[in-house]
Amino acid sequence: QWNMAGYRDAKIADIRAEVGDGKVICGLSGGVDSAVAAVLIHAAIGDQLTCVFVDHGLMRQGEAEQVVSLFREHYHIPLVHVDAADMFLAGLAGVSDPEQKRKFIGGAFIDVFEAEARKIGGAKFLAQGTLYPDVIESVSFTGGPSVTIKSHHNVGGLPARMNMALVEPLRELFKDEVRRLGVELGLPPAFVGRHPFPGPGLAIRIPGEVTREACDTLRKADAIYLDEIRKAGLYDEIWQAFAVLLPVRTVGVMGDGRTYDKVCGLRAVTSVDGMTADVYPFESAFLSRCATRIVNEVPGINRVVYDYTSKPPGTIEWE
Ligand code: XMP
């Protein structure tokens, strides 16, 4: 347990010492961690910081707009909004291996950051909201031999050729500590309480090949699921809830007709730090309501399943 006001002040001093009068680019992902890192670094070095929000086309519904308005309108922190959806989706075409997706996305982020660094006359530093669990999970698995489970996009996904130094002020922290630090820095509680969202975004919630059409379908199902969770007052009890879109088609019947469409998986877990997780025990009426709405409202999905796997042996994300 850190004393967060003291931690904030110590980190501000560290960041100033680390970057001197250099320029820093901070990649915003839409999630809580990178937002907290950005606000902390801005408190330390002000306009030496440029935030870059890379819209990779793998965001959830409404996410890009929320991040841009929070930073520009609420914080008045300069923000470059890069629309890179075409580049990311083109690079993901034909890729279905989970680690290859992660490696491509990690590398593509760096390409965008390096291009932006050149535009502002050379930034020597890249800031990221890497947390302690990201570091651990990318290098080994608790108790086992040293095996990579997943290359978190901001750790094992980074290419060796990158020529900026990393600034990672949250590297010692767990999620609950980052949330407390965010509150200390004045971020709105509703933003700080958002569920985690992984940097590779919807790409790791679509097993198999990622297409624009699959992303659009998944965004609709995910928005319905989260809408139902919010309406039931369950959002804050859950660590993370999301939909996945499976590359499997099954037969169904709607009205008088046969359907042959994709399967949507629903996931919800409780957790303290994301390292282990339990399945959230929804009432069956709640899950039925979600299934009915998703099948009725989302073209291309005709079946909904609930993922009943804890972590371990499952992981939270499906890839
Ligand atoms: P897993 O799926 O490994 O996820 O059980 C644990 C937590 O980490 C998040 N996650 C990521 N976050 N970049 C991130 O910023 C990533 O590449 C990444 N992969 C997984 C996941 O959403 C969960 O909260």
TrEMBL record:
The GMPS ATP-PPase domain, residue ranges: 2-194
Domain of life according to the entry: Bacteria
The enzyme's E.C. designation: 6.3.5.2
Keyword DNA-binding attached: no
Keyword Ligase: yes
The protein's annotated pathway: Purine metabolism; GMP biosynthesis; GMP from XMP (L-Gln route): step 1/1
Signal peptide: none
One GO MF term: ATP binding
Catalytic activity annotation: XMP + L-glutamine + ATP + H2O = GMP + L-glutamate + AMP + diphosphate + 2 H(+)
Keyword tags: ATP-binding, Glutamine amidotransferase, GMP biosynthesis, Ligase, Nucleotide-binding, Purine biosynthesis
Enzyme class: ligase
Any single GO CC term annotated in Swiss-Prot or TrEMBL for this entry: cytosol
Binding site residues for ATP: 29-35
Physiological role: Catalyzes the synthesis of GMP from XMP.
Subunit description: Homodimer.
Name of the featured protein: GMP synthase [glutamine-hydrolyzing]
Organism: Sandaracinobacteroides saxicola
Gene, per the UniProt record: guaA
Coverage span on the entire protein: 199 to 517 of 517
